[in-house]
Amino acid sequence: MSTAIFYGSSLGNTQFVADKIHARMPEADCLPVNDLTGDQILKYDNIILGTSTWGVGNLQDDFELFVDLLLSLDLSAKKFALFGLGDQQTYPDTYCNGMGKLYHLLKEKDWKVLGFTSVEGYDFSESEAQVGDEFVGLALDEDNEPDLTDVRIAQWVKSLPF
Ligand SMILES: Cc1cc2nc3c(=O)[nH]c(=O)nc-3n(C[C@H](O)[C@H](O)[C@H](O)COP(=O)(O)O)c2cc1C
Q1: Domain layout of the chain by residue ranges
Q2: CA quadruple 52, 91, 116, 106: dihedral positive or negative?
Q3: What is the CB < 6 Å shell around ligand 1?
Q4: Nearest-CA neighbor of 15 among 104, 88, 83, 100?
Q5: Which residues contact 146 (CB under 8 A, 6 or more apart)?
């Protein structure tokens, strides 16, 4: 089974994290979303998508463009997992909304999204990435909690069923 890590990153934080995830699954391919073609996306069985949040609760810029391509494909046989970067302190009401927006777009298609994580241990008010007491993927905060990133990644990668 082949796995891809596709990320969009404006200042490098999401890329930094994508590289860390890649180091824990070296058999995967790790690529920025801006250069991808439909054929490249279709090659993989498992697709990990990583976006930061910009504006007030929006997808990262490259992702805004990439989702149109993604949603134009038939990816119903794929397994998805998401990771998101945000800033709980400055944007407590829209923490990791980018990841949440992505999740809801995939769910509208009825595509399989795995790799939910507990919201326990985070400090925010609202997030579109929260469903019940879980995030819809791995939520990270390189602005305020960079020291927690490695352990959060390690637990998440271990929990992924691929
Ligand atoms: C102008 C601006 C708007 C932001 N808006 C949000 C937001 O609404 N929610 C959030 O959780 N983080 C927000 N962030 C924080 C970024 O998502 C965070 O710094 C992230 O690590 C950036 O990752 P990147 O360098 O890969 O793009 C914002 C940051 C900036 C500078």
Answers
A1: 3-159
A2: negative
A3: 9-14, 52-57, 60, 85-87, 91, 94-97, 142-143
A4: 83
A5: none
Name the percent of the chain lying above pLDDT 90. 98
* DSSP annotation of 60: P
- Structure tokens given for 20: 């860390």
**Ligand 1 atom nearest 14 alpha carbon:** 26
Which atom, in ligand 1's list, is nearest to the CA of 56?
Answer: 8
What pLDDT score was predicted for residue 147?
A: 98
Average pLDDT over residues 28-32: 98
List the residue whose alpha carbon is closest to atom 16 of ligand 1. Answer: 86
Domain 3-159 is of which CATH architecture?
Answer: 3-Layer(aba) Sandwich (3.40)
* pTM, rounded to two decimals: 0.98
Q: What is the mean pLDDT of residues 104-119?
A: 98
43 C-alpha to center of ligand 1: Å? 30
